[in-house]
Amino acid sequence: MTSHVETNADDNQGSKRLFITLSVMLATIIQVLDTTIANVALPHMRGTMGATQDQISWVLTSYIVASAIAMPLTGFVAARIGRKRLFLYSVLGFTFASVLCGAAQSLEQIILFRILQGIFGASLVPLSQSVLLDTYPTEQHGSAMAMWGMGVMVGPILGPSLGGWLTEYYNWRWVFYINVPFGIMAWMGIAAYVKETAIDTTRRFDMFGFALLGLSIGSLQMFLDRGESLNWFSSLEVIIEASLAVLAFYMFAVHMFTHKAPFLEPMMFKDRNYVVGLLFGFMIGIILLATMALLPPFLQNYMGYPVLDVGLLLTPRGFGTMTGMMIVGRVARKIDLRYLVATGLVLMIISLWQMTKFSVDITRWEIIWTGIVQGLGLGLVFVPLSTLSFSTLAPRYRNEATALYSLVRNIGSSIGISVVTTYLSHRVQINHAVYAEHINNFNPALQDAVQKGAYDLSTTAGLVSLNNVVTNQAAIFGYLQDFRLMMYVCIFTLPLLILLRRPGASK
């Protein structure tokens, strides 16, 4: 009889965990999806709003900056009003802001509503991670992080495909309306199954510390987002933003380690696994979205694939990621997690090395295969890394630590995108100059092409046509050099594994 009661209790507990997992995953997916899903719809928004290219980019910038500034508030607000209550307010606010974004009639309106969306959505990812870590026992944290990681990793990968499909067959407004049913389901699940945490009214808000951190993060995001279009340090605006970011962060760091009640608890940084996990997360953030920022324009502009085909070619990368996470969920308790991270990094290095050999003659299968291998590697890295990062950290720091962990990964993504974009532009110019040196009357290949009538160098049209070919080849090689840069980032990340401890190796 006792055994039967215990079995029912276990079944009920398992069912409750399942509903909690599904609910927080939905909240995670709608937030991370909105970081990339709107990118595809920007040209259509631009036509509707009558905005310039520079103006419409604020639809992305406003969301990223607002989310980055608000994310560090997660730990404090959760402690003051309760984690469940904050989660419910955030899901409700994010869903309502999504409706407002879809209904916006002017550029000013959609930028304002995107700021609201970023503020409410900032806490969804760290709260979902914190809830799952508290819901599952320590020995099941690997499986819990595998399920949570599917939402975090697959969202940005599937975002461009889903955004392109919605924009093509319906309207750009559905890029935002798609959040509504999932937001409602997430809210209902969280309200029904997630437990409330204890409220700490003794903790004081460090306004000065938050202002310094917010100024640093906001300035950094503006610097990264505006730098490329303003030619980086040739612009006074970019110089001011970079200076503010560095100065404000330095002042925040000094304030945090000297103030009696700082905005972020400095004791978190005594945990070696957590600090190394932050560094790792930063590097993975660079690789995750930087590669995704390069592939769509490469396939569209130089391989000649239409938008929908590009989405289909990149989708298997998401399946590779999910496969990697499912493998981790099965073997996390049996294998040293550091071996899984090492295996994942090696797979990513192999896939990026294969991408450095791309040419206009590659087949669809080669594109799909490299994407699957890279996705599998990301899946094997992301989940064990999340588990290792929090394996030795005291539970009382989880709300604050998960917010900072997500913030650092997002900053890594922003820096990665800016770096690969700038590096691509720089390499294209250098490659064009190098190739142009070989365009002369002594080049037998050019002479042969002229004799066959491919180019008429006596006319302006012929010279323009030849220059277009040189520019095209310079750009293709620039993309390959960018893939090689990402490969080096992976290689330089490998030694960080030495610094990670196994769970249970230290208190």
UniProtKB/TrEMBL annotation:
Alphabetized InterPro entries for the sequence: EmrB-like (IPR004638), MFS (IPR011701), MFS_dom (IPR020846), MFS_trans_sf (IPR036259)
> Can you say what this protein is called?
DHA2 family efflux MFS transporter permease subunit
Report whether Ribonucleoprotein shows up as a keyword of the record: no
Q: Name one Pfam family in it.
A: MFS_1
Q: What is the lineage of its organism?
A: Bacteria, Pseudomonadati, Pseudomonadota, Gammaproteobacteria, Vibrionales
GO CC terms in record: plasma membrane
Q: Report membrane topology.
A: Multi-pass membrane protein
Chain ranges of the Major facilitator superfamily (MFS) profile domain: 20-505
Q: Which family does it belong to?
A: Belongs to the major facilitator superfamily. EmrB family.
What are the record keywords, sorted? Cell membrane, Membrane, Transmembrane, Transmembrane helix, Transport
The protein's GO terms of the molecular function aspect are: transmembrane transporter activity
List where the protein spans the membrane: 18-38, 58-79, 86-105, 111-133, 145-166, 172-193, 205-224, 230-253, 274-295, 307-328, 337-355, 367-390, 402-424, 483-500
Whether Oxidoreductase counts among this entry's keywords is no
List the PANTHER family hit by this protein, alphabetically. Answer: MAJOR FACILITATOR SUPERFAMILY MULTIDRUG TRANSPORTER MFSC (PTHR42718:SF9)
Record localization:
Cell membrane
Annotated Gene3D superfamilies = MFS general substrate transporter like domains (1.20.1250.20), Multidrug resistance protein D (1.20.1720.10)
